[in-house]
């Protein structure tokens, strides 16, 4: 019943997003875009990642069959397009086969499986399709933010960032000094965040095929909820980022003609009364909170109980993602603080949901929600005070984030099952 309710709610959300995307953006929504990829060249994304997640419910023989079918179907599509002289954008060659394989497994579950086996296979297919559709949903959300929010609040956030010492400006200059090697590494880490999440999720779900059930909590849940709720905050607090609002822009969007001033990363903005500024209808308003930071934080959390290599990888990915978001000018420092609090609150809410909303969980979620709301209110209504009193507000912002981290660690440690020591049998005298 829970999975059926979640599926119906997800379908309703996607339909609503389809309607909004067509109405405000004049473009197809996530359902249409995903359906097109059954035939047309797919956009680069986690199609094979979704297939890999679906395979956690299959036996090894079934995994080889599904992978072979996906690769074979992709080969047919590539040859057909080559024979028909179809022009295909770069990196859009493969992926159709993975989508067909997942849908084929869904049909197989409905027609050839019953009971718990059918439910488990459909859960696996749903998990893979959710990951794939999540990319399309995110693209639709970003388009909606750019079309429905003509002005941005970057001057407010830039002022608030003075309390932290303008870390994006400092990181941008540091990245310039490092040179192209560091830039390429951080760009790769920033772009491959979904791949890192899939690796961690596959480790967490490695026993699903043998145990015939999913664990109560895993990274994919947190990832999807962060991606679902984050854009709602974008609509409330539209921000484009330092490189767009105070720099030359990136990837052909934004630029000096829309910037408040061309200052990033060498000259921090002056302290002056902030006001909302107009911006183009293309650049997403996707800074507050930093969802890249939130997702990297979730990866870090979910690698803590893994093997040493996974723990080191989770730590590296978090540090590199934070460095990239600041160094490339995509986020302000206060965005990252909000992203960490946001991720911990979502993670706490999901774990508390599994536990039945006990008192400790409710307090943890309430604490995280209150701190997150307080940060947004401070950024919107107290930026001048934050900029003129950095030695007061900077530590307060960091202490607020630290309080959520401390409470999360303390509460979740109490939730973890305690290992019961084995009692050694008492020595018995041997019979003479």
Structure description:
This protein has 19 helices and 2 strands. The chain has helices spanning 2-25, 30-36, 47-54, 60-83, 96-112, 115-148, 154-160, 167-178, 180-191, 193-204, 208-211, 219-236, 242-245, 291-302, 308-327, 333-355, 359-381, 383-388, 390-415; strands spanning 151-152, 277-278. It has a two-stranded antiparallel ribbon. Helix 9 crosses helix 15 (308-327). It starts with a helix and ends in a 17-residue tail after the last helix. The mean pLDDT is 88.
Layout of SSEs?
Blueprint: H1 2-25, H2 30-36, H3 47-54, H4 60-83, H5 96-112, H6 115-148, E1 151-152, H7 154-160, H8 167-178, H9 180-191, H10 193-204, H11 208-211, H12 219-236, H13 242-245, E2 277-278, H14 291-302, H15 308-327, H16 333-355, H17 359-381, H18 383-388, H19 390-415
Outline the low-pLDDT stretches: none
How would you classify the quaternary structure?
single chain
Query: What structural class is derived from the secondary structure elements?
Result: mainly alpha
Please compute the radius of gyration using only Cα atoms: 24 Å
Q: How many β-strand stretches?
A: 2
- Distance between the ends: 65 Å
Q: What's the tally of helices? A: 19
Shape: globular
Q: In this structure, how is the largest beta sheet organized?
A: 2 strands, antiparallel
Residue share in helix: 55-70%
Q: How would you spell out the order of helices and strands?
A: HHHHHHEHHHHHHHEHHHHHH
């Amino acid at each position: 019943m829970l999975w059926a309710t979640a599926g119906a709610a997800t379908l309703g959300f996607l339909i609503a997003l389809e309607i909004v995307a067509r109405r405000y953006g004049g473009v197809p929504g996530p359902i249409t875009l995903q359906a097109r990829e059954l035939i047309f060249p797919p956009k680069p994304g986690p199609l094979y990642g979704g297939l890999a997640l679906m395979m956690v419910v299959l036996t090894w023989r079934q995994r080889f069959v599904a992978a072979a079918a996906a690769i074979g179907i992709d080969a047919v599509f590539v040859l057909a397009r080559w024979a028909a002289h179809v022009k295909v954008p770069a990196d859009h060659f493969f992926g159709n086969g993975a989508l067909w394989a997942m849908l084929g497994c869904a049909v197989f579950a409905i027609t050839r499986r019953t009971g718990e086996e059918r439910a488990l296979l459909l859960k696996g297919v749903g998990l893979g399709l959710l990951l794939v559709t999540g990319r399309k949903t995110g693209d639709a959300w970003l388009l909606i933010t750019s079309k429905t929010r003509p002005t941005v609040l970057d001057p407010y956030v830039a002022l608030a960032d003075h309390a932290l010492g303008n870390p994006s400006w400092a990181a941008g200059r540091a990245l310039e000094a490092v040179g192209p090697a560091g830039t390429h590494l951080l760009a790769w880490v920033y772009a491959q965040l979904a791949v890192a999440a899939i690796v961690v999720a596959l480790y967490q779900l490695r026993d699903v095929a043998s145990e015939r059930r999913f664990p109560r909590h895993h990274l994919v849940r947190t990832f999807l909820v962060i991606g679902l709720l984050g854009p709602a905050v974008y609509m409330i607090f539209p921000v484009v980022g330092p490189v767009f609002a105070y720099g030359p822009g990136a990837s052909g969007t934004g630029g000096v003609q829309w910037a408040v001033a061309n200052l990033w990363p060498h000259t921090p903005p002056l302290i002056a009364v902030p006001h909302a500024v107009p911006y183009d209808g293309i650049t997403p308003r996707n800074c507050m909170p930093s969802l890249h930071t939130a997702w990297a934080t979730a990866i870090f959390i979910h690698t803590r109980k893994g093997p040493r290599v996974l723990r080191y990888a989770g730590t590296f990915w978090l540090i590199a993602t934070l460095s990239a978001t600041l160094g490339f000018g995509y986020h302000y420092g206060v965005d990252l603080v909000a992203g960490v609090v946001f991720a911990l609150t979502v993670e706490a809410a999901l774990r508390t949901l599994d536990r039945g909303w006990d008192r400790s969980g409710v307090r943890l979620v309430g604490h995280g929600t209150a701190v997150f709301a307080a940060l947004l209110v401070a950024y919107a209504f107290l930026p001048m005070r934050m900029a003129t009193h950095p030695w007061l507000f900077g530590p307060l912002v960091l202490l607020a984030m630290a309080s959520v981290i401390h409470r999360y660690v303390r509460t979740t440690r109490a939730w973890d099952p305690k290992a019961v020591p084995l009692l050694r049998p008492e020595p018995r005298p041997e019979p003479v």
